[in-house]
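Students often ask what a 'structure token' actually looks like in practice. Rather than answer in the abstract, let us consider Tetrahydromethanopterin S-methyltransferase subunit H, a protein of 61 residues. Its sequence is given first.
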Amino acid sequence: MVYTEYGTLFTAEQKVFEIAGMRIGGQPGENPAILIGSVFYRGDKALINPETGGIAGFSPG
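Now compare that with the structural description of the same chain:
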């Protein structure tokens, strides 16, 4: 169990990841909070599969 300086209890080790030069995760206050949005939503005609994020006219790879 991990305690932060604020007394918050975590049962798992807090990890930090770097994506496109931005560090996310870690202890509260260690890195800025981020929000990742999407322009697609469940029921959108372009969204083929909401579980995988598949969209019409786009083939990843």
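One point worth highlighting: Strands lie at 2-3, 9-10, 16-19, 22-25, 47-49, 54-55. Ask yourself how you might have guessed this from the sequence alone, and why that guess would often be unreliable.
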